[in-house]
Amino acid sequence: MRVAFFLGLFLFGISLFAQKATEVSRFDAPNATQAVAVDSLYVYAISNSKIVKHLKSDGAVVKEYQGSFKHLNGGIILDGKLYCANSNYPETPMASSLEIFDPVTLTHIGSHSFGLYVGSFTWIDRYQGDWYLMFVHYENYAKEGDKGVAYSALIRTDDQFRQKGGWMLPKVLIERLRPESISGGSFQGDLLYLSPHHHEEVYVCRLPKMGYELELLNTIPVPFQGQGLAWDRYQPNVLWGMHRQKRQVISVKIENP
Question: Which pTM does this prediction carry?
């Protein structure tokens, strides 16, 4: 199956496009274990129950938040709010919530509970007026019943988080991810960039015109190690991620060769 995966990526690359990632910056961030969020001046390093706000320019720490959450994950800054996925990982049955913070003060200002839903909530983004949320399943110690990675789902909702659509992961990607799943995601135009749990690569996907499976277009080697990522809306083509083992926040520029 591994051979099939790489063959599939090769065929996608030659038939569509091949992008490359060039490192722009990196700095040490001991809290960089789950995800990053980014705005015009700051990067937010997110761990299970802590958020640390860094200057993008040099990584200097500006502010910290310490809470009692079980497993904060992917985050996004939107309309003056920091939205973070949260779950009870690795516990089962899986339960999830969306936690909201003021990015200026890092004060917790809101919450939306999904309770027992379709998986473990890992990231959220906004695209064409709707929310897109990833709920995943695992094949490790966090496995729920007889469900595995193939049950991971991208869910589209309205502003009240009522489901409007949903997609499964491409089968070739499911094989690559096992026993983990997708940890991060962020839209750039009509393309969706997904990050795994620990591989140093990003998967370029798009929503299908028909059917129920995301289209896998390409894979891009990157210097960060999976987990949550975020497109920089203030620097063209700059994508931020983190390296969990090195405890570093890293940005790259994604361009066509």
Answer: 0.91
